[in-house]
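Q: I have 402 residues here and want to know how they pack in 3D. Can you give me a structure?
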Amino acid sequence: MTVKLFLENPYIKQIKANVVDIKHEDDKCTVELDKTLFYPHMCGGQPRDKGSIDNVKVIDVIKENEKIIHILDKSIYNKEVSLSIDWQTRFDHMQQHTGQHILSACFKKLYNVDTVGFHLGSTYTYIDVTMHNISAQVIKKIEKLANEVIYSNLPVKNFVVQKDMLKDIPIRKEPIVDKDIRIIEIESIDCTPCAGTHVKNTGEVGIIKIRKWENYKGNTRIEFACGQRALLDYDNKNTQINNISNLLSVKDTECQQGVENILRNMNEYNKQIITLKKEIAVYNKQALLSAKQAYNNVNIIKHIFNDEDINFNVLRKISHDIISNNENYVIIVAIKSTHKCQLIIATSENISLSAKDIFSSVISIIDGKGGGNNTLAQGGGTKVDNLSHCLYMAESMIKEIL
């Protein structure tokens, strides 16, 4: 059995301990000690501690029954070793976990809502509560009460009881063990079975800020930040608001209105752009139709656009419209830019000609690839200088067939 000092006093940062068992495997070392500071991976949503043993990094901490096993990234050989935990990580976990108890207690107190899930990650923390479609007003009430609990600086105590004693304790949820049940008590606010690390007083949580919430599997998932995490979250958002304020030349309190104005203008501009694109598409379609050359009663359209003049999807739609609504048309069109080119070959259904076969025969000229069917094939390549020759060869093959 390993003495779990993290439960007795989570504020201890360094100790010496005796090695009970040690195994050297490849480039790792597995160590069991008579006592430890390191919180292991356990159920309940809290991650392990970080730190070192004899200045060797601890890469994992595992609970095996009543033993705590430490995994190191290289071997140690001393019988007595020095343990040192990463205090910033430990205190962060203490703030978040105590904050979770406060938040869950507030949901229970105000709305008789249970917490059925908890996750404490490295970047975010959440609880799942048995309440659906929570309003912003409810969130504000919960957040207000939670922070009043913090400002009251109430003592946070822990004690161990046996199962038959639980009838005299107003616990918020049932324990998952049958004996030696550790209770975390926040004076006059909450009593909960828990094996996590916690602060001594609620004031050390600093602040609780609910970041967002969403319906999740019939419950609601509440993401929140406490203490230093909440400060970092505020710092990040404050920086972004100030940057947006400077970009829009408005007060920081007017950023939302400024962004709404931009979105409103963008929507109007987008409508105008759509109208102009339709007009340009009609113009390009008419330009292609007027450029047709008759050959054996078939109208052949051959043209190369620059990429700033037309969009490939628009050109494809124009080509499809022409062959769908007109008989005796063959289209060989392309778009070129500095480093790439795109090709479309299309033919009316009444013509005994496979656009796909012609396309497959010439696409290698521009070192390209693509595909399609008998009426329309498309693709692109990178040998822009060969594009004119590619269209010429496609036209020559079509005329041979016609």
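Q: Anything worth noting?
A: The helical segments are 5-8, 87-111, 136-151, 227-248, 255-290, 312-325, 355-362, 387-401. Residues 312 and 335 are 7 Å apart (CA to CA).
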